[in-house]
Amino acid sequence: MEVLKNYIDGAWTPSTSKETIDIVNPATQEVLAKVPYGKDTKKDVDLAVASAFKAYQEWSKVPVLKRVQVLYRLKSLMEENTEVLAEIITNESGKTYGESVGEIQRAIENIEVACGTPMLMAGDVIEDIATGIDEMMIRQPIGVAACITPFNFPSMIVFWFLPYAIATGNAFVVKPSEKVPMTMMKIFEFIDQLDIPKGLVSLVHGGKDSVDAILENPVIKAVSFVGSTPVARYIYSKGTANGKRVQAQGGAKNPVVILPDADIEMSTKIIADSVYGCAGQRCLAASTIITVDDQKRQIKDALYETVKSRTTGYGLDREVNMGPVITPESKARITGLIQKGLNEGAKMLLDGRNASIAGYEKGNFLNPTILEDVALDKELIKTEIFGPVMSLISMKNIDDALKFVNSGNYGNMACLFTGSGANARRFRNEADAGNIGINIGVAAPMAQFPFSGWKDSFFGDLHGQGKHAIEFFTQTKVIIERWPNIWSRKF
Ligand code: NAD
């Protein structure tokens, strides 16, 4: 069985660690490969960082116009290899082939935005800020940066950071989720073809030990993290305590409100896609659906009809629209939470717990579940389920709905379905979340905009993507200067 190598100093390098864990296809339970794990992975990180620092010293002197040329090449390689990449993503993460192609497209869009770095990192100048004195601000790279990413988007999330980091002149270390590291192995075959200094971009595997090595290595100046809230909080506090710049995106519990003036057919289809897309394993998955006024019955029936026709199965079968969840432990956690909701008084409208897919009986499958009348003061309504489960609740009016939306600990996304501009305007102004959808079910910011979580969904200041990423990976320098014209000086 293949043990994955790291990519360090421009070469495929076996890990110093002899310990490994299995990478498992969630639909079949087939072991795809083994990934290095354990405390010795710390040495791998330190080797990668030493080489990255040397590469940074060379790369930061390369003109930005030349630096972005490698991104054009990377974009082409990603486009030419979309099919093979999508198959790898589906096999290791379980999502459908279409969902895999979609996330590669989002990754490519971030490369495209970062190709604009020669404009985006431009500074400012004020001539004659005082008589004969000019002042300017320039942006310089920070050095070596690293990202630590989750299992649910094996390709896309790394690209919220990597293209911006290298375009602005930094070196970059990637630590993917140990559950889905094979997608990055393929992407690093493309990175290996780029005309960049050895060690500029490295891949290191592992779990908590390699993460701690990143947080402890003094050469790393910035850390980008995406994952669950407890780990995000840990990364932020440890990373900043060690003097690093940190952006840490955490978990979510996303409410969606449907007002009586919404288009019910359109809304319910969009909401079902949001709840059950990627088997509910998206940080922007709708989770709690709030109906307002007397439309509960109609919305409930429409949701039920839309949801029950969805097909679950192996993501490479093209007619399937929902794959398995990532691990058997995850499946057990989700079914446990459903049971908890029922114990807390919720009613079962659609029970997806007994999914069995012919030919894939060992897979971690769950069918869509709908719970209604979920208790507002109990655990299920507050906990991130990260699985294909919808909780339906109803409120008297938009005031109560907004109060509920703002009562949660998370602030990743809140959505409203309505036909009223006035209600939409009020919601986008008053909802406490960093990403707002109006008649949109997955309010994922495109690459031009920051991925803006709030509250327990984000720790830090500058977010991933777009101009925020350019700011995160650069430090500003302000220069004030005087150049007396010695030729016209009177002595
Ligand atoms: P996770 O927090 O378990 O793992 C994320 C990364 O952290 C992995 O690389 C892992 O190796 C590392 N890690 C895990 N435990 C650690 C520990 N104790 N110390 C140090 N490092 C550790 O997350 P996951 O299960 O892979 O991903 C799902 C979570 O990610 C969900 O909560 C989801 O909402 C969140 N997520 C958030 C966003 C966002 O933009 N806010 C996007 C995608 C996923």
TrEMBL record:
<dbReference type="InterPro" id="IPR015590">
    <property type="entry name" value="Aldehyde_DH_dom"/>
</dbReference>
<dbReference type="InterPro" id="IPR016162">
    <property type="entry name" value="Ald_DH_N"/>
</dbReference>
<feature type="domain" description="Aldehyde dehydrogenase">
    <location>
        <begin position="12"/>
        <end position="479"/>
    </location>
</feature>
<dbReference type="GO" id="GO:0004491">
    <property type="term" value="F:methylmalonate-semialdehyde dehydrogenase (acylating, NAD) activity"/>
</dbReference>
<dbReference type="GO" id="GO:0006574">
    <property type="term" value="P:L-valine catabolic process"/>
</dbReference>
<dbReference type="Pfam" id="PF00171">
    <property type="entry name" value="Aldedh"/>
</dbReference>
<dbReference type="InterPro" id="IPR016160">
    <property type="entry name" value="Ald_DH_CS_CYS"/>
</dbReference>
<keyword id="KW-0560">Oxidoreductase</keyword>
<dbReference type="InterPro" id="IPR016163">
    <property type="entry name" value="Ald_DH_C"/>
</dbReference>
<dbReference type="InterPro" id="IPR010061">
    <property type="entry name" value="MeMal-semiAld_DH"/>
</dbReference>
<protein>
    <recommendedName>
        <fullName>methylmalonate-semialdehyde dehydrogenase (CoA acylating)</fullName>
        <ecNumber>1.2.1.27</ecNumber>
    </recommendedName>
</protein>
<keyword id="KW-0520">NAD</keyword>
<dbReference type="GO" id="GO:0006210">
    <property type="term" value="P:thymine catabolic process"/>
</dbReference>
<dbReference type="InterPro" id="IPR016161">
    <property type="entry name" value="Ald_DH/histidinol_DH"/>
</dbReference>
